[in-house]
Write a structure and sequence with these properties.
mainly alpha
Length: 81
């Protein structure tokens, strides 16, 4: 029996195409706020990268800029009800 693959998330409309051009201040602020809030709610770096169209490294930088402490590797995600 094969283990089912994880679904790949679509880039959210507010972030579509913004990774390809230099961001303005407002776009960067919205990205940092979204990443910080969703990470604290339990989303993984991988999920956030997929949702924003960024790399995991870019998501880590956004979390650092927001002052959010990162979880250790393999942390249990928060389950949504």
């Amino acid at each position: 029996m094969a283990y089912p693959s994880r679904p790949v998330l679509e880039v959210l409309p507010q972030f579509r195409g913004t990774a390809l051009v230099r961001q303005n201040t407002d776009q960067r602020r919205r990205l940092i706020e979204f990443v910080a809030l969703e990470y604290q709610r339990g989303r993984s770096l991988r999920e956030l990268a997929e949702l924003t169209g960024r790399t995991q490294a870019a998501v880590r930088r956004a979390l650092d800029q927001a002052g959010v402490a990162r979880r250790g590797r393999g942390a249990q995600p928060i389950r949504y009800s």
